[in-house]
Structure formats: structure tokens, C-alpha cells
Amino acid sequence: MNNVASPVVVVSVIAPMLQDFRAGDPYTKALLLGIAYSNNIGGMTTPISSPQNLVAFDVITNANKTITWGTWLAVSIPFSIVCTLVVWAFLWIFFRPKIKEVNPIPPSKPEPFTIVHVYVLIVCCGTIILWALESQISSFVGDSGITGLLPVVLFFGIQVLNKSDFKDLPWDVLMLLAGGIALGGCIKSSGLLDLMAHGLANAVKSQGLWVITLSFTLFIWSFANFISHTVAALIVLPVVANVGARIGGGTHIVLLVMSAVLIDSGAMALPVTSFPNAQVYSLKDENDSQFVLTTDYVKTGFILGLIEVVLMMGFGYFLLLWIV
Phi and psi dihedrals of 52, rounded to 5? Predict the structure, then answer.
């Protein structure tokens, strides 16, 4: 599932449990930040789990190099598992929740499986398949955003969702995320990030592969904390692929692009950096107080992002060398 949809599903599952807690509780901070960060990390795992992965696939293909799903999964799955365990351990140690157990959620009687559920499954699976085939059908569809509109039309069109559902959509989250996209769009149109990326490429072109990989992973991580992950990928990854082609060809292209895009997904130091972060940031208790504050992201997200860079330049780098 795309990491835009998955946090909504997970948050809806734990929503009854959150009613027993108040804003500021260390356990809810650790729990909710863990959901946001693990969804960011989950966005690394497959070529369709986040938009920036699709960008990376296109960049590698445009450089006349192919990468299979098997190769991607062989690198991303071990790396994301290690990152998830690190996030869990760090958040538990950082917040030190005192809670020993949570109240069980009372079971509810499941609704009977109907034709509506079949319809929802077909629409969801069809949308995911279209996202997976984006590079093959882009000339017909035009953009992944058009595919994303299909569920909106199909669900609202036959009243699976109604006006009240439309009003209940997390518009504050969407606007928060749109702010990060707008910021990234401004930086892209100004040419600032592109200029800096090419400047970095010229500065490290005579260095070794490890140093070049470190330079671009740090560069894309730094900017992806403040702008959309997808915008950062669109600007930086083509430059990374160009550097890889100049220093060693196909293998170097895949290694540099994959390391950069995985760290791009791992940037999570502000609520605007990704939809999972924004989704969790919007959650409030019964007194309309936020469970997670911006300072919570800053204190934990920056540190975890740097840890992920270290993991990439150690475990991840040699994993890429071995598999790619």
C-alpha cells in the first residue's frame, strides 16, 4: 500500500485506544511518532510505496539502466527492517513511557461482507495496479495524480462516500502537506536546489564512490526535511544519476540513486516532510490539544535521520555493492 494511505488505516485502528490518553503523554508520543516514522520507512520498501521511488525508477530507466523489483526489495527490505527496529528502540528510550499495559479495545461485531466491500476492494487494487504500471501507461493516463483521482470519482460518484465524508477529510493535514509541496515548488522554480546539486556534483566528481554517496545522501536528506520528498527526488536524483554515469556507469547509477532515494524517504524532522508526519501531527485529544508537537519531530526526527544516514553508509552501502 502507498505510504499516503497506510497511516490513515493504522491511525483509524488505534483511534479507540487514544481516547484513554491525553496530549503530552510519553506513550502516545512514542506510539504516534513510531507510526509516522515507520510509514516513512515503509515508503522505502517497494517501487510503488512512495512517489519518490517511482521517480527513482524513471531516473534509472532514463539512464539506460534497468532495475528489477527483486533487486529493489533485496536492498530495501533488510535496510527498512533495521531502520524500523532502530526507530522503535530510540523512541522507547527517548520518551521512557511509564505505562505497563493499555486497556483492550472492545471487539465489535463485523459487518456482513457485501457487494460494496467487493467494489471497494476492486477500486483499491485497481488503483494500486495503475500506480505500479505508471511508466507503461503514462502516455495515456498522463500523471499518477490522475490515477489518484479515480477512487475519489468512483467512491463519491455512486455514494459509497457522501457529503459528510467529504467534510470529514483531514483538510488541515492536506493543507499542511501542500505547504511543504509549495515550498519545494518555489525552490525548484527558483533553480536554487538545482544549482546547489550541480555545484556539489562538480565538487565531489574526483572523489571515491563512498564519499560521493555520502555527499548526496546528506544533501538530499537535508533538503527533504523541509520540502516534499517527491520534489527533492525530482531535482536531486537526475543529478545523482548523471554523476554515477560519469564515474562508473550502470552499477554506480543504481547504487547512488537508490541510496539517495532511500534516505529521502527517511527525512522526517518536521510535520511537513511527509503525509504520515502530517497525519499524525493533526491528531488531537478530547480537549483539542495535539498529541504530538513540532518540537517532538525536531528532537527525534533529526537524530533518527542522521542515524539512518550512518546505517546507509555502513550496512546499506555494502548491501548495495553486494546486490547491485
Answer: -65, -25
Asked if 201 and 237 count as a contact pair (C-beta separation under 8 A), the reply is no
The Cα–Cα gap between 40 and 61 comes to 24
Residue 66's closest CA among 320, 240, 243, 250? 250
DSSP for 129-165 reads: HHHHTHHHHHHHH--HHHHHHHHHHHHHHTTSS-HHH
Residues contacting 246, CB < 8 A, separation 6+: 205
Average pLDDT, the chain: 82
- 223-278 pLDDT, tens per residue? 888 877 887 888 888 888 888 877 766 678 889 999 999 999 989 888 878 888 88
Letter for the amino acid at 316?
G
Above 60 in pLDDT, residue 211?
yes
- Measured CA to CA, the distance from residue 240 to residue 281 in angstroms comes to 32
Distance CA 9, CA 13 (A): 6
Residue 54 Ramachandran class (φ > 0 left, ψ -120 to 50 alpha, else beta) = alpha
Cβ 51 vs Cβ 123: under 8 Å: no
What number of other Cβ atoms are within 10 A of residue 247's Cβ?
17
How far CA 284 is from CA of 9, 28, 126, 173, in Å, comes to: 17, 11, 33, 12
Residue 261's pLDDT is what?
A: 93
Confidence (pLDDT) at 250:
63
Tell me, yes or no, if the pTM score tops 0.85.
Answer: no
Q: Where are the alpha helices (DSSP H) in the chain?
A: 6-18, 26-42, 51-62, 69-95, 115-132, 134-141, 144-157, 163-167, 171-190, 192-204, 209-224, 229-247, 250-265, 275-281, 294-311, 317-323
Contacts of 297 (CB under 8 A, 6+ apart): 33, 268, 269, 270, 271, 277, 281
